[in-house]
């Protein structure tokens, strides 16, 4: 880490979801739109700005609805952003997620030719994430949005996906989610791990120094790049029945079944981390936001992974102070994911054919060094964790030949023939501008 003083953040220019976790319970919708006429696209941005709260005025849980807005590279082109400005964006953003699928491990069933239309196509220009306290408020907002879009003929809505967070904050796999949020210097917003030093703002937001004391590359003019961030959006279909079947077939008892599932994830269903609760789930710990993320790996006596396996999902995606801690801070992301589709009832082992899963969103200043590195080096590969032949057992692109090692004494336990439990149904790389940048884009005259 550098010893540079914290740089105050321009909170009034940063979209609220970058720094503020969402309410515990909400109804939401992700809307994708195509811009056919650049002037109408700019009019859409002008209308949306009033619904986008800043980090200095975060959305109140009782507010009827609010939104965040991001644009793909093709969307910026469709708005008429000049070519010399477009050239300032990183290559991975310009290429888009579909073009980089092979590098990301999105092959087989997760390959772009199997993605849900129009995901991965050049038609995805604008991503709008609308949230409301309940389904009724959300529907009223969406009805108003549809009316507004009918008045803007040069913008076409092309995809809608409802999303939500249950009161218990659990995903379709049955585990509590959204627990770990980093503290960011200058934000005034505490993180969820008091054992973790705050991160330099430049790891997530353009225009500020990062952990190395450097300013990440930023598109010009400054008004466009400053206070913006890059968003990764992925629709991840979860094969819950297959996951339950696999765990049950490898477990000796119901208690062993629950333990195996926790070893895959690194946490118990309640959210209690294995490092702090290695033997059994502790619901009070899992429900306590002051304790359920207050841990490290090595410092809390688990350098060898005897409590939380070295290859567990939570440890791969956030190694904390593991042996690779010298670089872990340079690859941290802000995660903002939610659920879609109906939950499979508890203890049901047969697939009911419903589409369910996770809408994965993460925010960062450098796509290649953050999301792409974590996906390719930590999720798809185990070299950094001392298990080079293993992938993430939960989210890795396993093909039925995968394996997962659980360190234990006197003899380690190894699970084999891991199938794929998460399939990517499509996604895109987007840029979430600051509020001044949204106004700049809306006022373009090209």
UniProtKB/TrEMBL annotation:
Q: Listed GO molecular functions?
A: heme binding; metal ion binding; peroxidase activity
Q: Name one GO cellular component term.
A: cytosol
Q: Which domain of life is it from?
A: Bacteria
Cited InterPro entries:
Dimeric_a/b-barrel (IPR011008), DyP_N (IPR049509), Dyp_peroxidase (IPR006314)
Q: What's in the keyword line of the UniProt record?
A: Iron, Metal-binding, Oxidoreductase, Peroxidase
Pfam families the record matches: DyP_N
Cofactor dependence: heme b
- SUPFAM superfamilies this protein is in? Dimeric alpha+beta barrel
The record places domain DyP dimeric alpha+beta barrel at 66-144
Q: Which NCBIfam families match?
A: Dyp_perox_fam
Family statement drawn from the similarity comment of this UniProt entry: Belongs to the DyP-type peroxidase family.
This one is known as Dyp-type peroxidase
Naturally occurring in which organism (per UniProt): Solirubrobacter ginsenosidimutans
